[in-house]
Amino acid sequence: MGSSATPSNAPPSIRLTVNGGAHDVPATPDTALLHVLRNDLELNGPKYGCGLGECGACTVLIDGVAARSCVIPVRAAEGRAVTTLEGLGTRLHPGPTQQAFIDCQAAQCGYCLNGMIMTVEALLRRDPCPTEQALRSELQHNLCRCGTHVEIMQAALRAVQLRAAGAAEDSPR
Fold this sequence. Notes:
Blueprint: E1 13-18, E2 21-26, H1 33-40, E3 59-62, E4 65-68, E5 81-83, H2 96-103, H3 113-126, H4 132-139, H5 149-170
Parallel strand pairs: 1-5
Antiparallel strand pairs: 1-2, 3-4, 3-5
Helix pairs in contact: 2-5, 3-5
């Protein structure tokens, strides 16, 4: 039977915009965004933690808003801007929020850091000068089991300072 039809068992291609680049990924629409990011796009910033959207390790930004990628179907990210930890900066030139976490040595095992950094980044995009209480409130649903809470808060406050310094440098004189 000489049919030129494509196999019906091949998953459809879904177009995602991740870290500013367009990607066509073969995935069923209900596949978790986290799995596509890690397995298809090889972005290892977001971590698989609980798989229930409870711990925050998988946090990414979708149109600038913090979102738990383990419970978001990939179809929900189609046509929207997804930013992962890798999209905030590079090893040589980390973004201000990443640099703050480095400066404050806010890691022990580091598993929660993706969620902590992305959550702080989302808040700073909405409110460039949040209070310490606003930072605490924003981070309260991100779990850290190693006990680096003090350093994480120091890093969040440092991120506010670094972003303010960067904004001052960028403003016309």
